[in-house]
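Quick one: co-fold with geranylgeranyl diphosphate.
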Amino acid sequence: MSNIAQLKQQIEEHMCSFLEKLEAPNALKKSMLYSVTSGGKRIRPLIILLGLQDLGIPVQQGLEVACAIEMIHTYSLIHDDLPAMDNDEYRRGKLTNHMVFGEDTAILAGDALLTHAFGMILNAKDLENQKKVRILKEMVKAIGASGMVGGQILDMYYTANIPSVKELQEIHHLKTQELIRLCYFIVGEIADLHAASKSMLDLLSHHVGMAFQILDDLADFEIQNSSDQLLKKATYPSILGKTVALEMYHNHKKEALKLARELFVNTDSSVLIERILHV
Ligand code: GRG
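Sure, here it is.
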């Protein structure tokens, strides 16, 4: 099994054992576990663990934080799929959480995953308290009203109003890239990198986040009657055209790989970027 596959398995096992041990009503646990185990690529926790490994830091120091970030990502997807948001019936080829457990339970499963993410970081065994505080502060910024949730409301607003390119960038920056930025921030914090390397990680997260979003938009552009198209959502190819969007994607990917090669001695972080951004 490859190193990346092994780490992915470690992430899955840790999240499952954490949720199975959780003292909570069974109906809620089942709904949380359903979405956590429904086959995500685990990009965000892998960014953290591979980044640490490539810098020579034991992955154990970041395992709980990495799983917490995946729980936050899962909560955001459960809520994004709800009838009041994108109203999606399927995700990752499976019925969405509210289709299986009902809207009420799906909302609460998302709430519980978000809350437990904070608990997981607070209780992380191999992480110093000072680092936990710095990570939690940045996490609040990245996922709350001035981050992912803020991006989601802008996304809703611009479903009825066409955004400019600058406005589209702002939506995606908040909705998608802030969580990716947080993952690279966590690597820098746990590995105690100096300010210059932290700035490089920040720039790396920008390029990975941009290329990731444009690629997602390009894939959606090719699907007839996708949910973005049905909801008349603005995307990079719909606003700029496919050729320009493709060129932007290639440029961001190239810059991301250049920075990853400069930052990390080992190459698995670059392998992961190649995999995330594979057309
Ligand atoms: C509801 C608070 C709230 C936020 C929702 C993340 C998000 C904000 C919405 C998801 C919708 C979406 C398609 C966003 C674009 C980013 C993206 C491609 C997310 C999917 O991430 P992957 O590919 O998913 O990592 P998997 O399934 O692999 O976990």
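If it helps, The pocket of geranylgeranyl diphosphate is lined by residues 40-41, 43, 76-77, 79-80, 85, 92, 148-149, 152, 175-176, 216 (CB under 6 Å).
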